[in-house]
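Entry:
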Amino acid sequence: MRVCSFFFGVLFLLSGSMAPSAPGPGHYPYQDIGDGRKATEVVLTLVDGVAVDHEGNIYISHRSKNRIRKIDKDGIITTIAGNGKAGFGGDHGPALKATFNFPAGLCLDQKGNLFVADRNNHRVRRIDVAGTVTTVAGTGIPDMGGDDGPAIQAHLNYPSDLVCDGKGNLYISDRSNNRIRKVDSQGVITTVAGLGLPEFGGDFGPAVDAFLKYPFGIDLDAQGNLYIADRGNNRIRKVDTQGIITTVAGDGTHFFSGDYGPATRASLAYPTDVAVDPRGNLYIADRNNNRIRKVDSLGIMTTVMGIGKYEYNGDNEIASETTLHLPFALAHHPDGKLIIVDRNHFRVRSMDFKTHALATVAGNGKSWFRGDGGPGMGATLEFPSGIGIDSKGNIIFSDKMSNRLRFIDRKGFIYTLAGSGHLGNEGDGGPVSKASLYLPDAMVVDRKDNIYFISPQGSSKFVRKIDAQGRITRFAGNGVLGDTGDGGPAVLASFGMIKDLAVDGEGNVYLADLTQRKIRKVDSRGIVSTLALDHWQKIADEEIHPNGIAVNASGEIFVSDSGSSKIRKIDRNQNVTTFAGTGAFEDSGDGGPAIEAGIRSPGGLIFSPDGELFVAEETSHRIRKIDKEGNILLVAGIGVAGYSGDGGPATRAQLKSPYRMVFDREGNLYFSD
């Protein structure tokens, strides 16, 4: 079996003869990240966090490069932590030799120590003033637990942001646990807000009894009040010094409205960060509205930056007349400026509070997209995700952060299939080359070479279709979060966060809706329905968390249920049974019956041509298969995140969060890594 792996934006072949020779060492354009140069001259993709010290040095978490970088007062950028590889390692040694895994939020304490939310390692790490890195919270297991004990023995689940106070306390936005945690000066962790369920409720009561929904950015004011970007609820929440929670901005609707009125009656759209200035004014990264909003000390909402459009229109404009594209993170500069991560403009920018003038402090606005027309091995990719193969043997994949679908032909050369590179959902009814795509994700190709792929819109996701003639249309989803529309056209139905797609031999498309916890079907007529809704509770005490989906040759549907660590089967009569997994969050059982094995958070699923089910275990960094006798076997990965092993047995290679998979007609497996 040959395996093809896409590793963090660069295409590699583990073995096989499809691709022509790759460039030699030192010739890949992604290797030069710009250290030692002016920060405005370098490429910055996927910056997730920002912090500023009292001298005006700016620190950013460069997620796509797994590095922490510093922009000094002279505008020179350097790497201060991270060797660029994805993984976990290096504690108690030099930060430059350590490995991180999608670093996110940052904060600085009064001693100058820098704290990093090492998101996909489910840890918080500290870089001290001597440049040594250590873990201060998290075991590396994505779970909830450990309150009232040592933080390094507690579980975190995708920590997204941090804030340090003046008393040695560290606050953590524990995103997927739907909680805000606190590590005190003695290293003891507690929950200060959130019950753990992704819902809304609890205002005017104790914050520990309230609901948050995927909280993101956090900040503290001078009095010690905590502000939370309650992203999934489209609100900003405040926890006062007595532990009481209230909403201070946002009415819960994903929309833009309410300027010049009470902030609690205004609408926000997926706010990702908050920052409080010394006067108590609250600034909000209103991400999907492409604006920075301000709530003054009287509770009045205004827009201070952004007009809602995303086409870049330059610096030195008045802030209220400029454009932003998914503003993501905020920080205050001691010179009286607001620092903004303008994420999809690939820049870090500043806004002067006095003059409202803008300037770029880092990033040249370019992405790493390149390589079309050349060997796939020499191209750079930006978070490849969905993957499929058409009838001609072309490997088609979503190059997510470049907003394109690309393909590798049978000679190993790479080209763009769809997308102009501009982020958007425009162009339906026209040619794919002129359409704009919006972070295309999971995809599937049917027998007629129609391509279906997922894109976000607002707080939900929808599906677009590219037919064999190259026309793009909307296939399913109206862009409104929900689960309505059964029995009617799929384009008018509402969905949540569609995680995966599958198609059967009759042209029916199946959608795994993670947040609505349902399997939806769009038949060949374009009519949507929900599958097996009445059967789930017969086999489980909790709702499903569909994370991946596949259909076998008999039309039976298989679902990876990440919430229960099991794989479910839906037969043609919509009866639901457990096909694999004991429910234990562990890796166990290789060589034995799959029903008795531990499967840690199963993800993508795919059937091989001979009917074996392959399972991508994202958090275990492995791929396993369930043979036709029902036994589970290891196929690839050693269980440690990283990139190594090319040219050797797949079972001895390191993988990093494998997810999407596809087989070609010869039985070779390809996956995005």
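The two ends are 17 Å apart (CA to CA).
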